[in-house]
Each structure stands twice: as C-alpha cells, then as structure tokens.
C-alpha cells in the first residue's frame, strides 16, 4: 500500500509539473520575413534575446568548410555602430552575458540581460543583422581564434577526431560528411569577398527567427522589434539542395589513427532518419535503454558484469536531414573490438526479438518525462527550444506536444524500429586506434 501511494504521488508530481510548465507564446512575422516569438515569464527579472539562423555546416561548399562556425565568431567582431572589440564590453557593462553556437543545421546567438535592458539586446542583435563589419582584420583575427579552438578541442584532444572519422565515411554526397569546425586550409584560402557573400546570402531576416523570453512588456517589445528589425531588408529566399544518400546494404569497416589516444575504441554506426520523424524519437528511447546511465544494458553488461570494456555507450545523433546512431566501447586489456561488437550485437538482437520489460519501459517513460520537464525549467532552455522547433522542425508547438509522441511510443514500436535500422548489414565498424607513427590521418 505504501509503494502504491508513493507511485501515485510521483505520478501526480510529474503530471502537475508537465501541466504547470506548458509553454505559452505569441508569434508573428515582420514584413521582411523575420519570424518573431515572444514568451513571457515573470518569475525572474531577466530577459533572453536570441536569434537563430537557418545556416550551418551543411550549407557550405566542400572546399570551403567551417564557414558557419567561423561566422559564429566573426559576427561578434563589431558593427557599423558597435566598434571592434566593444561587443562583449557592452554586454558585461550592462549586467548581461552572451554566447553563440553552431551545428550542421543552424547557428544560434543569444544575450541574457536584466529585464530593463531588453531594448539594448534588441538593438545589438539588429545591428549584427543589419550592419555587420566584415573586413580583413576581423577575418584574420578570428581565423587565429578558430585555429586555436580546433587545436585545443579537436587536434590535441583524445578521440577528438571521432566525428570526422565517422562522418566522412557515413555520408558520401550529403554535406554532413564534414565537421562543423571545418578544415583550416579552407578558411585560409577563402577571400574576404567569399565571407561577405556568405553573410549576404544567409544572414537575412527571412532566414531567421527572433525569440524574446522572460520578463518584459509585450507591446513595448513589439514596438522595439519593429523599430530595430523592421527596416532590415529582406533577402532572396535561400535555395536548399536535397541530398539523398544511398542506403547502406553491406557492413563495411574502416580505421582511424589518432596520436592522442593510448587505448583503441570501436564504434558501430548506423545511418538513421531525420530528427523530425517518429522513428528518430523511438531510436532516442532505444539509445536510452541501451546506454543511458550505469544501469543501462550495455554499460552493466560490458563494464560492470563482464568487465570487457573500460567504457561503453550509445547515442542517437538526430539532425534535420539524417541522423546517426552510434554505439561505442573501449576494450579492456586482453579483449578486442570484435569481442565488444559480438556482445553489443547480442543486446541489439534481444531488443529486436523480445519486447522490453514493462519495468524497463516505464523507466524509459519516466526518463523522457523528466527530460521534458527539465528542458522547460529555464527561460534560456525555453528560448532555445522555441527557436529550434520553429526553424528546424517546422512545428513550434512541439515544445508542448513532443512529449506526447514519446508517451505514445509502444514496446512493439521499439522492437520494430530496432529491427528496421540496427542490423549488421546497415552499418560501419570504425576502429579508432593509437597512431603507429604518431601522425594524424
């Protein structure tokens, strides 16, 4: 009886939290095509102003990779009315902080200010869009910054080139085949005119969404948004190519040598559908079941019970056009990559053959319910989610309804999706090993 009461209390708490955290918002378009989303939250005297642009690494040319990430840095250099080097000073002097990040699919900029500085934030983001200064000194400065970032985070980091090794083999025609940070020789070879053309093509109001979230007056915000963003000229619609990868029908194996690692890692990688599909969400659940936490099936089996791996896990890397499902392991001394793959395959076959237990299924539901609550727990998280669901998913209401999709996934679907995508003839096996001669691939 006590357990029943506790379960009921937990259910009520979860249900109450998700209901209480339903996100309300207003949205509209300016005449220049900029989509505007307003989310009011008076729980704290802060306001987040963010702009997400529909441009990422996949919008680059094969011989000019790294442009989108480069612009993440370059567009902090200064504008017509914000002198070079003054951007961050202006933000901190007014009690704020800001940042930006880039993926294969989009670039995201945001400021967090005390709520009385909304006008400043809107003006700064409109300046970034209307009056960026893209000159040679800025390009040269940020080129060195990006090179240092690549050295620290990729080239000199153990297993830092895993995504490069995986992507260039999993994609043959799609731009997902290169990394977001790109190749430094491409940035070195690019002319100032190429950078200016990239900005003119993608950093336009009709290729972006502006989100204001936090404590503010809506009518005042709308007035300032019209004043600062309204005059920005609409750009030509961005034409996007469609790239179709041929299905993987036969397992293939490849090797990558890394001078920064002492222990080999093996990865099994499967190409998966767009993050907008139901199947991608089922794969999220499969990933959680297999490797989310130390009680997951793969970790418990390979690391705890059989002591075959130093580390093991899996994750579903969902993106706008395609995704990748990756399973990895670092063999213990005396064990091989093939030993791990054999054990991993046994666990996958179990998911493909038998329904997961009701207990494990409920555990998954609880995890995704908790993730949903946490994602809407901060104004910063809500602002990012609103922009993402609008720009990449094409359905902003998913901020409130996507959890219903996860709730509706059945044990039978988990089995069927595992059978559909996680087969040996649909994957690459990557042996990521210490470099024999201490040189990079």
UniProtKB/TrEMBL annotation:
GO terms for biological process: proteolysis. Residues 1-22 form the signal peptide. Coiled coil: none annotated. Keywords: Hydrolase, Metalloprotease, Protease, Signal, Zinc. This is Insulinase family protein. Residues 36-179 form the Peptidase M16 N-terminal domain. SUPFAM superfamilies: LuxS/MPP-like metallohydrolase. Belongs to the peptidase M16 family. It comes from the Bacteria. It comes from Flavobacterium profundi.
């Amino acid at each position: 009886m006590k357990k029943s009461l506790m379960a009921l209390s937990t259910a009520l708490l979860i249900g109450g939290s998700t209901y209480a955290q339903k996100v309300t918002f207003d949205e509209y378009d300016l005449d220049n095509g900029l989509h505007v989303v307003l989310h009011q939250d008076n729980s704290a005297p802060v306001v987040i102003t963010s702009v997400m642009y529909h441009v990422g690494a996949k919008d680059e040319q094969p011989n000019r990779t790294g442009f989108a990430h480069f612009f993440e840095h370059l567009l902090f250099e200064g504008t017509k009315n914000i002198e070079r080097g003054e951007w961050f000073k202006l933000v901190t002097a007014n009690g704020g902080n800001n940042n930006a990040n880039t993926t294969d699919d989009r670039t995201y900029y945001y400021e967090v200010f005390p709520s009385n500085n909304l006008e400043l934030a809107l003006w700064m983001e409109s300046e970034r869009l209307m009056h960026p200064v893209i000159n040679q000194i800025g390009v040269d400065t940020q080129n060195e910054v990006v090179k240092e970032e690549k050295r620290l985070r990729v080239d000199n980091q153990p297993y830092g080139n895993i995504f490069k090794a995986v992507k260039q083999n999993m994609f043959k025609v799609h731009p997902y085949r290169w990394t977001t940070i790109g190749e430094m020789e491409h940035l070195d070879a690019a002319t100032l005119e190429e950078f200016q053309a990239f900005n003119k093509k993608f950093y336009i109001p009709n290729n972006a969404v502006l989100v204001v979230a936090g404590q503010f007056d809506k009518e005042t915000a709308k007035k300032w948004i019209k004043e600062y963003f309204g005059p920005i000229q609409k750009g030509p619609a961005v034409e996007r190519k469609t790239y179709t990868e041929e299905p993987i029908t036969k397992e293939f194996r490849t090797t990558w040598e890394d001078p920064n690692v002492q222990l080999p890692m093996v990865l099994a990688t499967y190409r998966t559908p767009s993050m907008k599909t139901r199947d991608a969400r089922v794969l999220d659940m499969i990933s959680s079941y297999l490797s989310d936490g130390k009680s997951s099936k793969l970790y418990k089996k390979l690391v705890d019970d059989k002591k075959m791996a130093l580390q093991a896990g899996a994750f579903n890397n969902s993106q706008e056009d395609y995704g990748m499902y990756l399973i990895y392991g670092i063999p213990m001394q005396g064990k091989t990559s093939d030993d791990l793959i054999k054990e991993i395959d046994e666990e996958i076959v179990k998911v493909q053959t038998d329904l997961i237990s009701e207990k494990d299924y409920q555990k998954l539901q609880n995890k995704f319910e908790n993730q949903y609550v946490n994602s809407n727990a901060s104004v910063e998280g809500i602002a990012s989610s609103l922009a993402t669901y609008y720009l990449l998913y094409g359905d902003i209401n998913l901020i409130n309804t996507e959890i219903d999709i996860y709730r509706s996934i059945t044990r039978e679907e988990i089995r069927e999706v595992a059978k559909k995508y996680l087969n040996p003839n649909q994957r690459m096996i990557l042996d990521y090993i210490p470099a024999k001669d201490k040189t990079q691939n």
